[in-house]
Amino acid sequence: MATIQDVAKKAGLSRTTVSRVINEHPYVTEEKKRLVTQAMQELNYVPNSSARRLRRQQTETIAVYVPRITNPFFSHLVEVMEKEAAKKGYQLILCQTRYKKEQERNFLELLKTKQVDGLILTSIENDWSEFEPYLSFGPIVVCNEYSDSAQVPSVYLNQIEGSYLGTKHLIDQGYTKIGYCTGNHKSSRVSKDRKIGFLKALDDAGIMMKEEWFFYNAYSVQDGFAAFKKLSELADRPQAVFTGSDEVAAGIAKAAFDAGWRVPEDLAIIGFDNQPLAALMDLTTVEQPIDTIAKQAMNLMVEAIQAKKPLRRKEVILPFQLIKRSST
């Protein structure tokens, strides 16, 4: 196996010069770069990337927090991030928190111990005060989720506007008895704001909401099945239901079909995100521009890593779009 000394001998240069070329040091002539590159190719010499990263005090690795990778929204988000990171010479580590505060805190050690150059948070379960001390170890960027306390770059959509848009569409279609199906409504800012937007749309239209029409802790297709079962057993049932994800909406729709209900005649359903599943099930949904969210977040993260300066609050707020289909 060839060594850096063999490369230096083959190129007719000093070991120091070869090291400078390998580590992309400035002030090395193009001719010397050519000689070293040629020698490396002829000797099949591959530099030790771990050693290079150690010398540069960079891992070229970024950690991405996701609550549940099986959710198509987050898997799509991570896929686009990975492609964008690769273009810039970075790789990703996926940290699945499962909406657990302790798991979220444990992953912060990756930044503290210099195993990653930065963190991208797509969900937040803890108070921002838990993250604040770790900013001294590297940059943190927030996307999808957001916090007023976070003085860091953030890419997100105003979820109050998103849920208002979807709920108003149901109201405009003539529905006055509207259920609401959501995930973590207590700690997630996204869920809290969606509920605010939903209730605001009802209030603006003078529509009353019953407590039994709220269905909480729904994240998956299976949770959609369970939500429909509860909904169908109510004495006074809603005519329509707003959901926080296309997965949940698809579960409700499938359960409704299996029960012999007609959608939207017996129950109108609206999803959120515009995942491929929504198109497959012909579900009306509120679209979030996942590709743009992912690219913007990754660009902000790479900028922060390369700048090596204290982070400042920077907000990138993106628009929603209502995608109308047959379920409403």
From TrEMBL:
Gene3D superfamilies on file: 3.40.50.2300, lambda repressor-like DNA-binding domains (1.10.260.40)
Protein's UniProt keywords contain DNA-binding: yes
Domain HTH lacI-type: 2-56
SUPFAM superfamilies, alphabetized: lambda repressor-like DNA-binding domains, Periplasmic binding protein-like I
Record's keyword annotation contains DNA-binding: yes
GO molecular function list: DNA binding
Protein name: LacI family DNA-binding transcriptional regulator
InterPro entries the record matches: HTH_LacI, LacI/GalR-like_sensor, Lambda_DNA-bd_dom_sf, Peripla_BP_I
Superkingdom of origin: Bacteria
Pfam families in the cross-refs: LacI, Peripla_BP_3
Keywords: DNA-binding, Transcription, Transcription regulation
